[in-house]
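User: Please predict the structure of the protein below. I'd like the answer in structure-token form so I can feed it into my own downstream comparison script.

Assistant: Understood. Taking the following sequence of 361 residues as input:
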Amino acid sequence: MKFELLELLNFRNYHKLSLKFSPNVNIIYGKNGSGKTNIVEAIYVLALTKTFRNVNDKSLIRKSCEKAKIKGTVKQTKKIKYQVEITKEGKKVQINNNKIQLLSEYIAKIPIVVFSPGDLRILKDTPITRRKFLNIELSFYDSNYLKYVSDYNKVLKQRNSYLKQLSLNANKSYEYLDILTQKLIELGKIIYDLRLEFINQINLRINDYYNLITKEGSISVKYLSTFDKSSEELAKKFKKIYEKELNFGKTLLGVHLDDLDFLLDDNKAKEWASEGQIKNIIVALKLAELEMIKERLGFGPILILDDLFSELDKEKINNILKLLPSDCQIFITTTELSKLKKTLKENSKKFKVFSGNVVEE
């Protein structure tokens, strides 16, 4: 799958922009703050309708404008046109000029793997960040995954609401709560099984990539879930904590509480790893994802490397560059072209960015 054309209107610092890309490597370079990341961010938004930055959607709209629009032409076996329009009220999406009513029916049509400095939050931040990571990546791995998560969240919301109602009712009946609990378990087990399969596949690959980058240490990912039991055991466990859930007014078991531990030499990387090690772990994780998605779909996803090389030494940069797949379209942003290998620069299309302007080279 290859991005051929990107068109922006009032997106970030760009009033109007149209870029044609190479099917191989595209290098976007310029000073910090010039708008390099905004270009690859637009590609990501076109794929997932949301940014990989930790910001509000409204910030994607150019100042003093009412809306932003991103259009893209993508080619696999045939050309497909995608569009995302962002307003202060929400988002609208189209495929081949046909409006798509549900975002869940649009998302993940364009498989994409991104590394950005913000990805370090996957290790450092709260479990919510790691669950978001799982949900995004699994949307490419299984086409039905987002629907399962959406259905689960609806049942979870109903169950939490009913728990609050029950807590105010002197004559408590658990019949409807049992029904909601059973539905939550059914959907939760599907999500748990898919997440477990995904993490197992990651663990088959991530350590090899980490060693190819660093030449030392071992890395693995541990999946932490309260749903690591049979459906029957979960039903019994829920019944035991009904009263506790009534007191809290919310569901205390479920895949909405899942988490991941990244283990470096069997120690929690969050607590023991250096900044450089964390960055290498994330790169290894992304390369493992890339390989998995490629095997799953039968073609390579789009790869974005946003400011990957800013804090790495040349040896690690060269180790990473050797691992980049030749059949994936790659977008690299950098402030320093000198950090990239001569052969990579010679076989790529380069875009120089300065003050909201882009020049193709």
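That's the full token string. The first helix runs from residue 36 to 48.
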